[in-house]
Automatic annotation (TrEMBL):
Alphabetical list of PROSITE patterns matching this protein: ABC_TRANSPORTER_1, ABC_TRANSPORTER_2
Domain ABC transporter, chain residue ranges per copy: 16-251
Region (Disordered): 393-421
Family annotation (PANTHER family): HEMIN IMPORT ATP-BINDING PROTEIN HMUV
Identification of the protein by name: Cobalamin import ATP-binding protein BtuD
Record-linked Gene3D superfamilies: P-loop containing nucleotide triphosphate hydrolases
Biological source species: Haloarcula pellucida
Summary of subunit composition and partner proteins: The complex is composed of two ATP-binding proteins (BtuD), two transmembrane proteins (BtuC) and a solute-binding protein (BtuF).
Catalytic activity, as annotated: an R-cob(III)alamin(out) + ATP + H2O = an R-cob(III)alamin(in) + ADP + phosphate + H(+)
Coiled coil ranges: none
Bias kind Basic and acidic residues: ranges: 404-421
Amino acid sequence: MSDHDDGHAGEAIPMLEANDIAVSLGGTQILSGVDLTAECGSVVGLVGPNGAGKTTVLRTLRATLSPDRGTVRVAGEPIDDLSTKEVSRRVASTPQATTLSFDFTVEQTVEMGRTPHLGRFDRADEDDYDAVQAAMERAEVAQFADRPVTSLSGGERQRVLLARALAQETPVLLLDEPTANLDVNHAVRTLELVADLAAEGKTAVAAIHDLNLAARYCDELVVLSDGEVRAAGDPRDVLTSETLGDAFDAEALVTRQPGTDAPLVTPLPDRDPLDAAVHVVGTGGQAAAAVARLVAAGSSVTVGVVPAGDAAAERARELDCPVVTVPPFAGVDSNARERATELAREADAVVVAGDVGDANQSVVAAASRLVAVAGEGVPRIESERTTVTTVESLPEAVADLPPAEDRDERAVPSGEQQDRY
């Protein structure tokens, strides 16, 4: 029988479990009736607006805050029955704030994670040294080992604190906004590390601000709002427009992330709907994101020419946008080119995003008003009539375009070319 089996019905005991948690601070109710279950080897994400109670949940799970009501169990043991050191051998945590006021080196800071494993007069041994070195390597801070922790950037300090938690070698990790100070690359690498740790058997509960990262890397999500659980479960079931509207008091478009079945959340702007017909030219994830952003803003969107199966084509079909496709790696025939060119001519604006390819140059040429999403493909189509922007600012850029010139005066190449992507 495993360490986490109850011995009765063969049901595994959750590694971490909170039941009916209620917390009030200064006479204000912060949490009410919160339930949370994290199985061994899983990543559970806490999401919700600022002030929803995510940090308070983590503090309660860590036993640094006693609830007014409810119980927290670690591997079946009530956390209130454990000493501080016993809790620290089971649960490690990283704080949201990375401010450190002492001038210890990075290695010395990570060594603090070994404290729960040492007696009052014990000195660190070779096993402790190995644990510290391994933690620094996994958190990618070994190169900073001899530097004062106060000399590091916020993102680097965030990774040092993660290394300190890893050095504790606990079965449970509690992470409060572990990607808050990181660039996109390090945010992804950090969550990849958390996923790897879960695959090795650790259990992680993380408060994550970015809904799309949470959807991609968490096995389950708990949506908090006003101290209550609004929804919990598989990200595909939890991240719905209805739940997000209830929790965040905001409208959002929910589609799927390219290359995965994870939800993709695109917030709908508060501004008036973008009453414009927009044709999107380009392939890949950037073009797919542009399509979703424009549909979310209220635009009537068409797409093409794109290869069938491309992320932009799939996003267009998912959102019921007309799309002109050709078989992958095939030439663009005159019929497909003419259909896409006509859509571009009829549109109020043409948006270029991702790789345009030689095949779409005539479609771009048909645009009376052109917006390009910043990226590698922009230099190919830059001109005086091009506005360059980001995916996030795309609706505003389209809305702010100057009046269109006479579309009939624009020359549109034709012919039987078979340009390939």
